[in-house]
Amino acid sequence: MTDAIASFLRRALFGLAAGFFLSLAAAPSALSREAPPSFADLAAELLPGVVNISSTQSVQARAGDLPEMPMLPPGSPFEQFFRDFMERNRQGQHGGGGDEGPVRKMQSLGSGFVIDPSGIIVTNNHVIEGADEITVTLQDGTAMKAQVLGRDDRTDLAVLQVKPEKPLHALSFGDSSKARVGDWVLAIGNPFGLGGTVTAGIISARGRDIRQGPYDDFIQTDAPINRGNSGGPLFNMDGEVIGVNTAIFSPSGGSIGIGFAIPSNMAKNVVAQLVKYGKPRRGWLGVRIQQVTPDIAESVGLKSAQGVMVAGVTAGGPADKAGIQNGDIILKFNNQEVKELHNLPRMVAETPIGTEVPVVIWHDGQEQTVTVKVGEMPDEEKQLAAATPAPPANAPLALSGLGLKIAPISPDLRDKFGLAPDQKGVVITDVAPNSNAAERGLRPGDVIVQVQQEEVNSPSDVEQRITRARKQNRKMVLLLIQGQDGLRWVPLPVSGAKGGKEPG
Predict the structure, then answer these.
(1) Range of the domain at 429
(2) What is the pLDDT of residues 55-112, one digit of tens each?
(3) Is 176 one of the annotated active-site residues of the chain?
(4) Total-model pTM
(5) 328 in active site
(6) Among residues 54, 55, 111, 156, which one is catalytic?
(7) Where are the beta strands (DSSP E) in 40-94?
(8) Is residue 126 annotated as a catalytic residue, yes or no?
(9) Whether residue 487 sits in one domain with residue 401
(10) Which residue of the set 204, 230, 264, 435 is catalytic?
(11) Angle at CA of residue 239, ends 236 and 243, nearest 5°
(12) Which of 126, 255, 264, 446 is catalytic?
């Protein structure tokens, strides 16, 4: 009897366990969402709001722009034919052998989407840049001429206006900050001029910086995007525009599953300004910045590499008025951590002009909070040159163990290295091969403006600052260098330094 009961219990428990695991396998996870059986209903709802954009540009052809002679086998009957044809064209289209050829029409194809029934359309700036004529074609084949309301080359966005006979089907922006990696997305556009084409995929990554501009924060997707999709919308499953398809990564020019879209939260702010002002109005801090490396962090006493370092302050700009100085490290802007170099420009640009915001900086070995009134970015930013007293006439000096030879700025050195008339500091005249200085990119003609965030006027000033850093057991000394590419901070090892053969 006991064995029979035990056997029954074992079978019952096995059945319960099997049923439990089968139910787990059959039931979808609460954290996942099944793929829709079809995108047809969503696509049918969205397609009328997506347009094809054709732009035409007149280009003056030149003789040098003619195509090259095709590669043909020697002795081919076509060889002489093509040679004669190419020669007649090169001898001058206008009958005289001049450089100018006939005016040619170049056509560009792209995509866009309607955001207002009155005929306001969003696209990429590169789709319509330089265009003499822009034509917008709706899904039903209706074609209309368009005018540019505004454009912004920094975010690659443009806004067009058409005058339809009846209200257009408008799409709405969604909240791109809610989009997560792995979410389903739909892309609609005009790839290769084929007309309304729908593709689907997922969000592959967020916050991509592809070196296209100072405000890069792209959504990456594997939804197939090809040439002609530029300016078209990227949708979430609620039919909201969460991105503007802008670029692809492709060795061949076709889709390999790596496309990039401007997030809607950035796009809608820029678009609103383009509609209202015809140009973007961005917040402005008035600083040049560079990445904080572990070496820089160690040299200024930070525990870890965080924030961005100020490498230049515009005189009279918002940062200057707030007391932010060259060499300060910006840790937070408006209560947001500055984690990477491209974070700060975007944060500032998106802040309404005139807003007063707290900025946390690392200054003189400690955190400080200053209040900055955000200004409007000028058309052309002017760089602030470090103002220092005229250097005394000191003899050139070799910095022991650093592989550098420095000298005061003299008229001869100013001419030799092409230094600006008002350039102040100490000029590097020689850099030892294979030294740490050479590896850090220092070269003759660079000017040392500051050492350890203190201005230097003579070679002896530089030597004293370095000696003091060594006595403080610093592994690095921080140099502010004025080079051909502008100001930059360079951390240079001073303890156990690889000096190389001293320059003579």
Answers:
(1) 397-493
(2) 887 765 554 555 555 554 444 455 555 556 556 555 554 444 455 556 666 777 899 9
(3) no
(4) 0.62
(5) no
(6) 156
(7) 50-62
(8) yes
(9) yes
(10) 230
(11) 50
(12) 126
